[in-house]
Design goal:
Distance between the termini: 57 Å
Family: Belongs to the glycosyltransferase 34 family.
Number of strands: 12
GO biological process, one term: protein N-linked glycosylation
InterPro entries: Glyco_trans_34 (IPR008630), Nucleotide-diphossugar_trans (IPR029044)
Bound molecules: 2-acetamido-2-deoxy-beta-D-glucopyranose
Organism: Lophiostoma macrostomum CBS 122681
GO molecular function, one term: glycosyltransferase activity
Largest sheet: 6 strands, mixed
Shape: elongated
Oligomer: single chain
Structural class: alpha/beta
């Protein structure tokens, strides 16, 4: 066969390539295998990489990037196959693209948290990781996956109040930076169950409207979760704040005016001091700042035009106690509170946002769920396509030998019938 000019070139190229391939092979076989860019190779028992190492970001992007759920998607199907749709009439959703750095994922804690396994301890290991460290790292990861801002504020504590109160002035100071349109505050035992699902999709799904200041989940229907007026508390472990300043950072076109959201957070923070009457006891009594919000702030006429219980008394679900156009959006317990292990607590199973008040020791495995639910299917695909599964089902064992079967016997063996199948116990493992 005569060689055309093209194939001749190919041959020349191939010849030139051979030494190169040999060189690469030599390189590959003499350097430790590493597919991560810039990975400084730590010793095998040291899991810490230097801080300028970009490989972690690459891994996260590679794992989540291709599957990030579109912000404006009309639906979302969960791991059980249940599909959730945007509310009726909202096919043209409010949020169409990622808000990126204008979303702040916020952790706040005033405890030292510097012991082994804690977030500020040195050289964190997975073994012995404390639940709250796992939770915070999952928030950090969530922010990285979607390009949001993340901050953990290691906060001062009040001298005369329970520690969880610090979240309120810290949320206020974050809002006052004017750098964020949305702040998603999470207690450290709160985990986004689907890290690939952007918060903007949830804002669409929960129909968060302009004018709303905050969205929080209602607590389970249990006696300790009711305020003195007989309304259920909103859980302050997961709080979405919506900045109500305009694009220039003004309020009602006025520069320097305090926004309604800032007023709400200020009144909340001042509740037990000079704020609302009888709020003082919540400085130390459980549930602290949650009770202050639930008992006083949410009924403040500035934030609620309908403080009465009329709707609830009339049999409407508590979720609808607050009228349209009010400042506080109440999220369903089943979607934004609790965990599957708490389903018997009023059905609060944390479909989207899990809150492990039921058992903090479950946080770490919940966090690993948020990674392995994506990692494992891809690993599985890789294995199935890798050519490393050897199909020897068409053979029959005789002593040390595997003898190839033919015809019907082979077909039967491959379908799991025939010799030996009675000795198998399918236990579903
Ligand atoms: C582990 O590796 C990191 C970065 O390479 C280094 O800073 C750290 O000192 C190492 N730790 C130990 C215990 O060797
Ligand atoms: C969800 O939305 C996508 C995009 O419009 C559509 O292709 C898909 O059929 C929808 N899924 C369900 C279950 O409705």
């Amino acid at each position: 066969m005569a060689l055309g000019p093209q194939s001749r070139w190919r041959r020349v190229l191939l010849l030139a390539l051979l030494p190169m391939l040999a060189a690469i092979f030599y390189y590959v076989s003499t350097t430790p295998p590493s597919f991560l860019p810039h990975a400084s190779s730590p010793s095998s028992d040291n899991m810490t990489f230097s801080s300028d190492d970009a490989s972690m970001m690459t891994v996260m992007k590679a794992l989540y990037g291709p599957i990030v759920h579109p912000v404006a998607a009309p639906n979302f199907t969960d791991e059980d196959g249940e599909t959730f749709y945007l509310p009726k009439g909202k096919d043209d959703p409010r949020f169409k693209k990622s808000l990126g750095k204008r979303v702040l994922i916020l952790d706040v804690d005033s405890r030292p948290l510097n012991h082994e396994g804690q977030i500020l301890g040195k050289e964190l290991k997975w073994k012995g990781i404390k639940p709250l460290a796992a939770g915070m790292l999952s928030h950090y990861m969530y922010a990285q996956v979607h390009g949001y801002t993340y901050k953990f504020i290691h906060a001062p504590s009040y001298e005369d109040r329970w520690g969880t109160w610090t979240k309120v002035p810290m949320m206020l100071s974050a809002i006052r930076t004017r750098q964020f349109d949305y702040i998603v505050f999470m207690d450290s035992d709160v985990v986004m169950h689907y890290p690939h699902l952007p918060i903007e999709w949830l804002l669409n799904y929960w129909d968060v409207q302009p004018g709303m200041l905050a969205a929080m989940s209602i607590d389970p229907d249990e006696p300790q979760n009711y305020d003195v007026r007989g309304n259920r508390y909103l859980n302050t472990g997961f709080v979405i704040l919506q900045n109500d300043r305009d694009h220039e950072g003004n309020v009602d076109g006025v520069e320097g005016k305090e926004s309604r959201l800032e007023t709400m957070l200020t009144r909340w923070a001042e509740c037990p001091d000079e704020g609302y009457k009888h709020c003082k006891r919540w400085k130390g009594d459980w549930p602290h700042e949650q009770a202050a919000f639930g008992t006083f702030v949410r009924y403040d006429p500035l934030f609620s035009s309908r403080p009465s219980l009329a709707a609830e008394k009339a049999g409407a679900p508590p979720e609808n106690t607050y009228a349209k156009g009010e400042a506080i959006k109440v999220l369903p317990c089943v979607e934004a509170n609790g965990a599957p292990e708490a389903e018997n607590r009023g059905g609060c199973k944390g479909l989207f946002v899990r809150h492990y008040w039921v058992d903090k020791s479950l946080v770490a495995s919940a966090v690993s769920d948020g990674i392995l639910q994506y990692w494992m299917p891809r690993l599985h695909h890789g294995l199935i396509d890798s050519g490393n599964i050897v199909d020897a089902k068409g053979f029959q064992l005789h002593g040390a030998e595997a003898v190839e079967l033919h015809g019907e016997a082979r077909e039967g063996a491959r379908k799991g019938k025939g010799t030996g199948s009675a000795n198998l116990k399918e236990e579903g493992w």
